[in-house]
Sequence to fold (567 residues):
Amino acid sequence: MMAVTFTERLRRLGLGVLGILLFFALWQFVTTVQLIPRSLVPPPTKVLEVFFENLLAGKLTDPTLFSLSNVVLGLALAIVVGITLGFVVGLYLRRFDQIVLPFFRICEKLNPFALFPIFIILFGIARLEKVMVVFWVSLWPLLFSTVDGAHGLDRVLLKSALSMGAKRGKLFTKVILPLMLPPLFSGLRLSATLAFFMIIASEMVGANDGLGWLYLVANHAYNLPLMYGIILFITLLAIVINALFSFIERRFHLWKPSVSFD
Amino acid sequence: MITTPAILKAERSVVDGPIERIVIKGVSKSFNTRQNKGRRGAAAQPFLAVRDFSLEVREGEFLSVVGPSGCGKSTLLDLLAGLEAPSGGTIYLDGKPVAGPNQRVGIVLQGYALFPWRTVRKNIEFGLEIKEVEKKERLRISQHYIELVGLGGFEESYPHELSGGMRQRVAIARALAYDPEVLLMDEPFAAVDAQTRETLQEELLSIWERTGKTVVFITHSIDEAIFLSDRIAVMSSSPGSLKSLLEVDLPRPRKTDRSSVRFGQLRHEIWELIQQNGHGQRQLEEQLVIKEAEELLVIRTPVRA
Fold:
């Protein structure tokens, strides 16, 4: 992976962008010649026009901030609870993990969409409920990646650290934590993706703010260009979130077992 | 389990003696086989890994432990390092019983066990950080050991950027950096190729001579043991116990001795000792014979073409 040269990366990026541009060109063509009626699918130029009108009028600012802040809050809560619980179960409660882990697995498998109405009954439709939805869906990947990471800790490395006199505190900060960073990070990445995905969904079930709610409002008003615009905008945000994680990963050049033969 | 207070008392003078660095006195180790956890029905059978093992390691000597795989060599190392507590008997290091992991011993394990997120320098400084040695001093010490093992110029490299032989050198430097009294090595060269192995053996001897450390070296290879050691402890298995203790009377330096007559005699002697190893050990013996044959082939074949 590291061997990929700059020009090669540029070439790949160029080809990727080309594919997207071709798609938009096709979309424009199909809608201009009315192969698909404009009343069903508006042309991308119209979509962008309406979207930017709304954006500049500030109509997207609050919903976007609402959605993103809920993701951040829910995720932060899931990080604290999930990683702590994962460490406790994975490192210190090894005798009980066969009791608690199957239960957690079932919790993870519960369809979160089916839980929305229950969350609404419990927490209302405002911010609290959204944060709880995000918390719930992002808890499990974080918890399980922490448990798996703790179970998979390199015994020889721990033995080596112990032999050099590393005890509880230092063993944890200097060995266990760095060893756990790659699995923790992959769990976090999965959680963040899932969280952003679910926040939009939950805002479409019952909400009075957020991008999902705005999408539903546009839908009720049959504002097709805005609907498509919001879809594109949500996709763009998801890409940005993903890129952010890639950046952090590279910035702190998190080591991974797989890079050992680069 | 097996307790030997009478013997301990009788050997007190030995413990206090100035020549012995390590005194292993009637040590036994049994494990409750926890491997099949989950199957609650299966009764935990205690497995005796080491039985009534006694050995004295002299100050500054190079002692190897050989024996078939599964003879408890590695368990012995864990006991010496204080990573495991003996079920019976006591291990003394400079007269004081070993009561847990400590910086009086440094260990080098098979498979390097380097911290992949730390550079060569940071790996070597690990034990010093634990010891809370201040940064400037750490730097001075790590630089000294980096040069001792011939890794100058690789201070800021990460383990994955190094060859197997270089990684092993980092592991040795790391174990030496916090200045332990004893260096314990568990098959440290098992994972490198034959030629690198010979180079590392020679380097280890030179490091040993320069630092004057007491070394306990666990190995599978009879030739390696003869080449390196002052004395060789031959273990027998199931349960692991000391079979014989041999003095290696080859003069040092030994660079050219690998094919000498005396070397061959010693090799044969040790091989015989391991061969006599009880009944029901056929599999282990065969394993060893194959390993031995491989090593003979490597040595007899002129590799440097």
Q: What stands out?
A: Chain B is about 40% helix and 20% strand. The longest helix of chain B spans residues 282-300.
